[in-house]
């Protein structure tokens, strides 16, 4: 991430740096396991950073919205 971009806040810069590192890790894992989807690995790595309660809440929230239709 270019530190000279003035319109990006410090929080946005930190998020982008962390996301980029997570994508690199996901690509490394996917290369070792042919047929594995890099974006799927990335999302799993993101979810592993969340607490079990947050993962459960997010999972149930999506299901509850789908049931309302």
% residues in beta strands? under 5%
What count of structural domains?
1
Biggest sheet character:
none
As residue ranges, the low-confidence spans are none
Helix amount: over 70%
H/E series, N to C? HHH
Note down, in words, how this protein is organized.
With 69 residues, the protein is mainly α. It has one domain. The protein has 3 helices and no strands. Helix 1 packs across helix 2. The longest helix is centred in the N-terminal third of the chain and has 23 residues. The chain is flat. It starts with 9 loop residues before the first helix and ends with a helix. The model has no long low-confidence stretch (mean pLDDT 87).
Write the layout of secondary structure elements.
Blueprint: H1 10-32, H2 38-48, H3 52-67
In short:
With 69 residues, the protein is mainly alpha-helical. It has three helices and no strands. The chain has one domain.
Can you give keywords for this protein?
flat; 69 residues
């Amino acid at each position: 991430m270019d530190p000279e971009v003035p319109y990006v806040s410090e929080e946005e810069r930190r998020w982008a740096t962390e996301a980029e590192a997570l994508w690199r890790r996901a690509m490394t894992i996917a290369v070792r396991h042919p047929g594995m989807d890099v974006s799927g690995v990335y999302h799993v790595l993101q979810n592993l950073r969340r607490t079990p309660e947050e993962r459960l809440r997010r999972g149930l929230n999506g299901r509850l919205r789908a049931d309302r239709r």
